[in-house]
Structure formats: C-alpha cells, structure tokens
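Today's session is about reading a structure prediction critically. Students often jump straight to the picture, but the first step is always the sequence itself: look for stretches that repeat, for charged clusters, for runs of hydrophobic residues. Only then move on to the predicted structure, which in these notes is written as discrete structure tokens rather than atom positions. Here is the chain we will use throughout the hour.
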Amino acid sequence: MAAREPSRAEIGHAISELLRDEEIATLATLASDGSPSASVMHIAADGLKVYMHTFVRTRKYGEMLANPKVSYAASHLPPGTRVDLRLEMPSLA
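Below is the predicted structure for this chain, in token form.
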C-alpha cells in the first residue's frame, strides 16, 4: 500500500513546528557577480513568517537591496543523532 501524501495544511503545520523549534538557518543571497553567498543566522518565526536581523552596513544587506531574491534553509537534527566525526576518523599520527 502506497504511503498517503500529506495535505498542504499538514505540511504547513510541520514547517511551522520546525521554525518554532529551530533557532539557526542559513540565508542565501546573490553576490554582485551572481554567485551565491550564504550566512548562518539566528531566526525567529511566527507561523510561516521568518524573521532575521542584520545590520545595514553588511555585505548581505547590500546584496538583498541589489537583488531581493533570497532563500533560506533551516533543518532539524533530532537529539542523539549527531555523529562526532572526530571519533570516527583514524589517527594521522
């Protein structure tokens, strides 16, 4: 039996929950040469509205004024799932 696709309301609720629980996201803007420019930032959310703070004399603020097409990514890493790669890497000595 195929899995049921979630409704738009269910997806919106899940995204709202993620944004409420997470405090960090990555904001992507476009540099003047068209290349991507990413900044990790603190976020606050009200439902699906996300708020980020920056100062007016920053690179990313200037990039947003020049091209307001931005994107952001927030993700969730459940407790106990983080892998400490330092413990997994063989010694180089």
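Discussion point for the tutorial: DSSP finds three helices and four strands in the chain.
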